[in-house]
Design brief:
CATH architecture of the largest domain: Orthogonal Bundle
Number of helices: 14
Function: Part of the binding-protein-dependent transport system for phosphate; probably responsible for the translocation of the substrate across the membrane.
Radius of gyration: 35 Å
Strand content: under 5%
Family: Belongs to the binding-protein-dependent transport system permease family. CysTW subfamily.
CATH superfamily of the largest domain: MetI-like
Number of domains: 2
Membrane topology: Multi-pass membrane protein
Structural class: mainly alpha
CATH class of the largest domain: Mainly Alpha
Helix content: 55-70%
Distance between the termini: 69 Å
Main location: membrane
Order of helices and strands: EEHHHHHHHHHHHHHH
Shape: flat
Organism: Polymorphospora rubra
Number of strands: 2
């Protein structure tokens, strides 16, 4: 036998007031029942983009192989087309169609859309990575005969001709010229770029907005325009000879907007509380910039410098117009032509001789390695900056 219990009404004695019950009397008041709570809405389970079960893996692999077979049949037997790029694109389209059809059998429409989007993203990344690896691999393979020769790094081409074997002559003059020119360009652009970024970020005003617009526009400046500017001003107007210094100044024109733009972004993310604390302690604005803002942004400024250097080290046309190619080692940036790795590659690959072409691809491989190292260092510095915040 079940008994039902009920809550008795509370007996409340209200305070006496004018027009209320007399002192000593009580009134009965029942409390309202608690409001009924609505059930929480069901949470939709998180959809997995990657195949998790064996059926999903088999569907993915089968779609890849089926798309390959269908693309080969259409490309080779039915369509009047040719070329590796067209075949890869057709294979990708066939794969996506088959994968959507197979996924439709076991999953609802939202899962199908997620799987197709994930397949498109991964396929695009694979195509870009394959293209990059193909370029690097082909360059290294064509220049491997020159890269394995020790004299390639210790000799110039002053004693080597188009028919000279690879065991004589090298790219020393181009390597030294690249290092000298890029060092001068860094010495010019680093203080100017950081000063420009400080002016844009810390000073502000109408003129700073104009400077920012000019810097952003100059990031897309064609390299041939920078070379023509230095060639016209220094060599045509002022009469300076072709030299490594002129080439370095042309590279500086290319590197300056990159460094200034990147440094501007870095300085803007410095917390404003640091500036306010420094100013509250009695420091001036420039003391705050020098002792607080710049040390805080030092890793980001190093990344900006590396990115600008990577842009300038691979330029060819400014060096071609302002310095010119040479086959001998020249360590004096004020006199005579000074070669660089991009110009070394451009000059030799046009000769048509197998030994010169091998040396050109060897120089291109060195340039790729140099740029790759610069970008890796930039990523490492940026990772350290994010880790120390």
């Amino acid at each position: 036998m079940q008994t039902e219990t009920t809550t008795p009404p509370r007996i409340v004695a209200p305070p006496a007031s004018n027009g209320g019950p007399a002192r000593g009397t009580t009134s009965v008041r029942a409390e309202p029942p608690p409001a009924a709570t609505e059930p929480a809405p069901a949470v939709e389970p998180r959809r997995e983009l990657r195949p998790r079960t064996l059926d999903d893996v088999l569907a993915l692999v089968g779609s890849v192989l089926g798309g390959l077979s269908l693309a080969w049949l259409l490309f080779r037997r039915l369509l009047p087309t040719d070329g590796a790029v067209g075949f890869v694109l057709l294979w990708l389209g066939c794969f996506l169609l088959l994968y959507a059809a197979v996924t439709m059998i076991r999953h609802p429409a939202p899962v199908i859309a997620d799987r197709i989007a994930a397949a498109v993203v991964h396929a695009g990344a694979a195509l870009v990575g394959a293209a990059l690896l193909t370029v690097i691999g082909y360059t290294v393979w064509r220049g491997l005969d020159a890269l394995v020769q020790p004299n390639f790094y210790t000799q110039d081409l002053s004693a080597a001709g188009p028919l000279t074997p690879l065991d004589t002559g090298g790219a020393l003059h181009a390597i030294v010229g690249t290092l000298i020119e890029i060092s001068i360009a860094i010495a010019v652009t680093l203080p100017l770029g950081v000063a420009t970024a400080v002016f844009i970020t810390e000073v502000g005003g109408r003129f700073s907005r104009l400077v920012r617009t000019i810097v952003e526009a100059m990031t897309a400046l064609p390299s041939i325009v920078a070379g023509l500017f230095i060639y016209t001003v220094l060599q045509v107007t002022l009469g300076f000879p072709r030299s490594g210094l002129a080439a370095a100044l042309a590279l500086s024109v290319m590197m300056l907007p990159i460094i200034a733009r990147a440094a501007d972004v870095v300085l803007r993310v410095v917390p404003g509380g640091l500036r306010e604390a420094s100013l509250a302690l009695g420091a001036s604005q420039w003391q705050t910039v020098w002792h607080v803002v710049l040390p805080t942004a030092r890793p980001g400024l190093a990344t900006a410098l590396i990115l600008g250097t990577a842009r300038g080290v691979g330029e060819t046309s400014p060096v071609l117009l302002t310095s010119g190619a040479s086959n001998f080692l020249n360590a004096d940036p004020l006199n005579n032509s000074m070669n660089s790795l991009p110009l070394f590659v451009y000059s030799l690959v046009r000769s048509g001789e197998p030994t010169y072409i091998a040396r050109a691809f060897g120089g291109a491989a060195l340039l790729l390695v140099l740029v790759l190292v610069l970008f890796v260092v930039a990523r490492v510095v940026a990772a350290r900056r994010d880790g120390t915040r």
